[in-house]
């Protein structure tokens, strides 16, 4: 076991799937990413987040939320932040955001 | 632009979020992962897949499907394959599968 996989409750709950390709160089990204991860943990309905980025700058982050309202609150907060503008213009060559309702979940040592 | 992000249609559609921590060593993993990726592309309703694994063996793969039936068909096929057994017993220290209905999507150069 490790801390990659979020210990989410029984579905239903909500997920934000954020897929992104970083531009070269840091340019403040690591600092802001850390701050946003801290902020997410303080938001109502936050259930966890899973994040992987490879050595070529390709990344997928999935955050989990108890309700659609919790998820929307987070997205609206994030969208309004300067971080989003910098993400669009500086940090990401490309990105996609998908919001989804998790309907079923299972895994190793986690029968569905 | 690059080929990380799947060019999915307007929602709704379905997503399988597979988060995993690899065990050390290959032990046939790369070959089988490539075969399964090829198989997915031939399945009815396959819309695309996004996959990232970092240098520590942490990975997230999200595959997208037109309908719940298409997604279930893929999962049932995969579950029945020997690959799933090997994944559980040999390749993955830990994993989680979440199936979700994508309700909204947007991104860079992809207004939602």
Name the assembly state: homodimer
As laid out across the biggest beta sheet of chain A, the strand order is 2-3-1-4
Mean pLDDT of chain A: 90
Low-confidence stretches of chain A: none
Instruction: List the chains of the largest interface with their residue counts.
Output: A-B, 42 and 42 residues
Describe the structure.
The structure is a homodimer of 112-residue chains. Chain A is of the alpha+beta class and 112 residues long. Chain A is built from three helices and four strands. A four-stranded antiparallel β-sheet of chain A has the order 2-3-1-4. In chain A, a hairpin with a 4-residue loop joins strand 2 and strand 3. At the A-B interface, strand 1, strand 2, strand 3 and strand 4 of A face strand 1, strand 2, strand 3 and strand 4 of B. Strand 4 of chain A pairs antiparallel with strand 4 of chain B, so a sheet runs across the interface.
Helices and strands in order, then pairings?
Two copies of one chain form a homodimer.
Chain A: E1 13-22, H1 29-41, E2 46-53, E3 58-65, H2 68-80, H3 82-91, E4 92-107
Antiparallel strand pairs in A: 1-3, 1-4, 2-3
């Amino acid at each position: 076991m490790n801390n990659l996989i979020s210990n989410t409750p029984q579905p239903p709950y909500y997920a934000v799937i954020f897929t992104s390709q970083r531009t070269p160089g840091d340019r403040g990204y690591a600092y802001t990413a850390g701050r946003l991860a801290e902020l997410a943990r303080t938001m109502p309905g936050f259930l966890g987040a899973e994040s992987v980025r490879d050595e070529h700058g390709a990344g997928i982050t999935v955050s989990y939320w108890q309700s659609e309202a919790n998820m929307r609150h987070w997205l609206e907060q994030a969208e309004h932040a300067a971080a989003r503008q910098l993400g669009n213009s500086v940090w990401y060559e490309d990105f996609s955001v998908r919001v989804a309702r998790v309907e079923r979940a299972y895994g190793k040592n986690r029968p569905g």
